[in-house]
Amino acid sequence: MTERFTFHLHATDGKARRGTISMQRGDIQTPAFMPVGTAGTVKAMRPAEVSASGADIILGNTYHLMLRPTAEKLQRLGGLHKFMGWDKPILTDSGGYQVMSLSELRKITEEGVSFKSHLDGSKHMITPERSMEIQRLIDSDIVMAFDECTPNGVDYDTAAKSMEMSMRWAKRSRDGFDQSGGIGGNHAQRAALFGIQQGALNETLRGESAQALIDIGFDGYAIGGLAVGEGQEAMFGVLDYAPDQLPDDKPRYLMGVGKPDDLVGAVERGVDMFDCVLPTRSGRNGQAFTWNGPINIRNAKFSEDQNPIDEKCACPVCTTWSRAYVHHLIRSGEILGAMLMTQHNIYFYQDLMAAMRSAISENRFSIFAAQFRRNYCRK
Fold first, then answer.
1. Phi and psi dihedrals of 39, rounded to 5?
2. Among 44, 82, 192, 303, whose Cα sits 20 to 30 Å from the Cα of 8?
3. How far is CA 266 from CA 125, 152, 164, 173, 360, in A?
4. Which of the following is catalytic: 139, 147, 219, 275?
């Protein structure tokens, strides 16, 4: 049987890394992009279509799933994999980011976060221990430690206090995860736990956070608290040093990022894993990603355009339908329009990750990145 969790680096090119994560439900080729399946579905796509795009892993949302259908119900129904028909790995976030975004509906204490559901106003509490329990009930393959996602723009003292509490929560998450071994089918013996680095935009705080996580010990390490409004330049400024503060022999996961040029720049700086709602959300709203930059398929100029969305793309959408047809669907509000746009975007993201993996393996990543930026950002 495959080991619980291993990470093997095959090649490096500068700071860019090509690797494989192996788990019992399958291998994950890195750099990897995880489509977001917030409520047990990658919106507008069937699981088989997501898998066919090249995705090795998807992301599930602890906050949303605990509220509906509830983690306990998911366990009774055989876990999230069986429930949604996805047999590859699933990473679940800890709920920290969603709780942060509730601002008016939540209260943070040392114990955890109490909040009111955005669905019905019911009261709930997430602690590090409860987050581990929820993710165990869901039967997540990669579990995220519970943390406070530090908001953008806070002062040093606020960022430091937030980071320090997240590190205390990280230790409690580690303990709670380890204790789950005998409770729910020995979940801890087949799943992995990632810690989350915080510290806002401050290199010293980031370094302290990284060391605290390393001292606790995790299977992988996430870079949190970015993509929260700081802008690409500031984000890349943090990524110039943050991945280097984390262990070389563990995967590094940049949470909630992002745009295609964000992904290229982050891989260039040593990041291995990503997730973002952008390809699915943008697809539903008429934005398609192409190798020559994004396009708005709603624009009138596409109404009689018989070319595919992207002539360089071999996805089922681009090999079957024209821009004119997809334009018609989106402008008409047809459900199929959202489905086709989303499918194309997910394929584009997976093709981009595959191209980066090949470029790293062939020691030509800097050339690839420069050429990508020239074509993608030329508009």
1. -115, 35
2. 82
3. 34, 19, 25, 27, 13
4. 275
Distance of alpha carbon 230 from alpha carbon 150, whole angstroms:
12
For 181, counting Cβ atoms within 10 Å of its Cβ (0-12 exposed, 13-18 middle, 19+ buried), the class is middle
Per-residue pLDDT tens digits for 254-298: 999 989 999 999 999 999 999 999 999 999 999 999 999 999 999
CA distance 276 to 255: 8
From the CB of residue 3, how many other CB atoms can be counted at a distance below 10 Å? Answer: 9
Q: Which of 93, 262, 310, 351 is catalytic?
A: 93
How far is the C-alpha of 163 from the C-alpha of 154, rounded, in Å?
Answer: 12
93 is a catalytic site residue? yes
pTM for the model stands at 0.96
Give how far Cα 262 sits from Cα of 56, 232, 259, 349, 363, Å: 20, 7, 5, 12, 20
d(C-alpha 269, C-alpha 335), whole Å: 38
Residue by residue, DSSP assigns 233-248 as HHHHHHHTTTGGGS-T
| C-alpha gyration radius of the chain | 20
Q: What are the two backbone dihedrals, phi and then psi, of residue 234, each rounded to the nearest 5 degrees?
A: -70, -40
* Cα–Cα distances in angstroms (integers) from residue 160 to residues 200, 204, 223, 350, in the given order: 8, 10, 16, 36
Distance CA 164, CA 175 (A): 17
Q: Which of 116, 117, 174 is nearest to 144 (CA)?
A: 174
